[in-house]
Specification:
The chain has about 200 residues and is of the alpha/beta class. Helix content is about 35%, strand content about 15%. The protein has a single domain, classed as Flavodoxin domain (Rossmann fold). Strands 1, 2, 3, 4, 5 and 6 form a six-stranded parallel beta sheet that branches. The protein is globular, with a radius of gyration of 16 Å. The two termini are about 15 Å apart.
């Protein structure tokens, strides 16, 4: 069984529909660790020792957040700046996270065709996530295709959001139970609720 931690970062949770539903679904999955960063650190006073120990205690680190101005919400960026220290996560003797996996669960306001060379965002979503991918690699971690909901602002609470949230719970369960096909996921740009690479139980 994989040890999975989900870090949820959303500064505007009371206005959230998709991410709030995803967080609720994640909390329903047994035997994983769920951390709401904005609830835990409302003043951004991050406990670095505690967070580093959490990373050491888990095999898969998954960050859930809405794409804010082509990046992460500010607290998650500060978390990275403080927790992924030289000598711990990278640099001289900084190999404590080597061999672990990083994954993202991202919601984007624009439709999928917006994130193309012809769309108004001009680039694929993975281009905007490249700093996080490189962060994982610098820390000796594997980076796998993100779980994505496009068009989150217009997603309905009777269709896309419930299906995406259930898919998120299914994804977390599969990772926990060592049934998530990372080899297949690693070859993809993104994964979605209707096409999760999940292995069959033997």
């Amino acid at each position: 069984m994989a040890r999975l931690i989900v870090y949820y970062a959303h500064p505007g949770q009371r206005f959230s529909r998709a991410n709030a539903a995803m967080a609720k679904a994640a909390r329903s999955v047994d035997r994983i660790t769920f951390v709401d960063l904005y609830a835990e650190y409302p003043r951004h006073d991050i406990d670095v020792d505690r967070e580093q120990q959490r990373l050491l205690d888990h095999d898969v680190i998954l960050f859930q957040f809405p794409l804010y101005w082509y990046s992460t919400p500010s607290l998650l960026k500060e978390w990275q700046d403080l927790v992924l220290q030289h000598g711990f996560a990278f640099g001289h003797k900084g190999d404590r996270l080597a061999g672990k996996r990083m994954m993202l669960a991202v919601t984007a306001g624009g439709a999928d065709d917006a994130y193309t060379a012809e769309g108004y965002q001009n680039f694929p979503l993975r281009v905007f996530l490249a700093p996080l991918e490189q962060t994982a690699r610098l820390c000796g971690m594997s980076f796998t295709a993100p779980y994505v909901l496009y068009g989150a602002l217009g997603a309905t609470e009777t269709d896309e959001i419930p299906r995406h949230s259930k898919g998120f719970a299914d994804l977390l369960t599969a990772i926990r139970d060592d049934l998530y096909d990372f080899t297949s996921a690693d070859s993809r740009e993104i994964v979605r609720f209707d096409d999760l690479p999940v292995l069959q139980r033997s």
